[in-house]
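On clarity, I found the account of how folds are encoded harder to follow than it need be. Since the whole study asks how a given chain folds, the encoding of that fold should be made plain. For the editor and my fellow referees, an illustration may be useful. An entry of this sort, consisting of the sequence and the corresponding backbone structure tokens, reads as follows:

:::
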Amino acid sequence: MFLQALGALAAIDSEGGCGEMEESYPWFKEYDLVKVPRTLEPYQNIPTHGFLDQAAAAVPKLGCVQLGLEMAYPEIKEHAERLANALASMGVEKGDRVVTLLPSSIQYVVADSAISKAGAVHVPCSFLEAKDTLAHKFTESGPKALICLDEHLATAESLREYMAAPNIIITKLDDYSGWSSKRGELPDVMWLTDLIDQAKPVPPRVSIEPSKDLETLLFTGGTTGLPKGCMLTHRNIVANVLQNIAIFGPVTKVLKGNISVIMGLPFFHSYGHCIMHTMIGGLQANMLIVTDPRDVKAMLELMRKYNPVLQFGVPTQFMKMLEEDIRAARVIGISGSAALPPTVQEKFEESSDGGYVSEGYGLSELSPVTHFNVSTNIRVMGGRQGVKVLNALLFNPVSIALTRAQAKLLGPKGFGKMFTGIIGFLAKRSRKSSKVREVERKATIGIPLPDTEVRVVEVDSG
């Protein structure tokens, strides 16, 4: 059983979008303050893999960092095109499902884009799930191919009977690492790296209609019953990426193509899947991938080495970080997937060297982000009057052009150090202002992203 994507993002289609919004919407006041546009229409009419293509052309020196390997977007794009070719050669056609059982990794990024380029539908699943849960998802989706780590081959073999075709592709995590990888011969499976090496970098010609064709079949957590597949189109994903960037205001015009970000999220989760696309397509950022989201020490090491500006995580990660020396964590943290306790937010700000954490909200059916809490950013920038001053001084067209030129000269590491130093100074100053802290409280409600329609529907469940 599939659950069609509803609400804000489903309302955006090639025939019109959300329509006229009422001037009385209370969050428009916040939009005007932080310079968020009230609408982003018309949205780019591109398939999701178009973001990787754009990043490869615009920032050819940036890409993904994993286990000591730095891989640029043009090479990631080529690997995706080769894999798309290989998938087509094994019979994967437009609309077919391809399952991944992968951790956050370059392999996941390659697979996601390759599946899109082949015109197929990506079904991300977690290798931590019980076999019965996975069997349900496989039965509902009927995948023609499965991509997983070699260490999960036994699980993959047990699920082969639920697949529409017996194509199992395996990879070792350190196939994409700074060291050589050894492997043994295994029957009845294909190695991801072999397929990529042997295929030509020419993806199949597939006509994709972004507003109608599915990009992802993302299953819900199943907290109220069996997991249900959320049918998300290319337009759903593309629209949410652009909305996620817009809600940050004009600062993203400076950051785009100039920063590194910590990706401490499981990409198979709706939050991680969305942020992966947002960083590739919206910010064209250098992604520092943490293959094990529980490895807080690895995150801190990446912070010291690359000076990232943003860190995406979940509340438990920020809690675990408080057990370490986080003075290196001078980052803007973005928390999601669960409520961020105000005490954790407070302690993180006190313990880090000027870092702070904000949060977003959403649900899988909506691609998934629907709301973001801008009050933290307002507080750090000195309150409402401070936001107005900084927007006028730093984010006018001339200042943005000059700052971007400086960022290109410094590179992501140098610019990250400079930018987080400024943010750290502002964050420390704001903590001393009782007036700002009183107005912009922690754990306040988020505001909807642009073009999000909120409707309260009363249903008599009997």
About this structure: The CA atoms of residues 40 and 450 lie 7 Å apart. Residues 1-22 have pLDDT under 50 and may be disordered. Residues 397-431 form the longest helix (35 residues). The chain is about 40% helix and 15% strand.
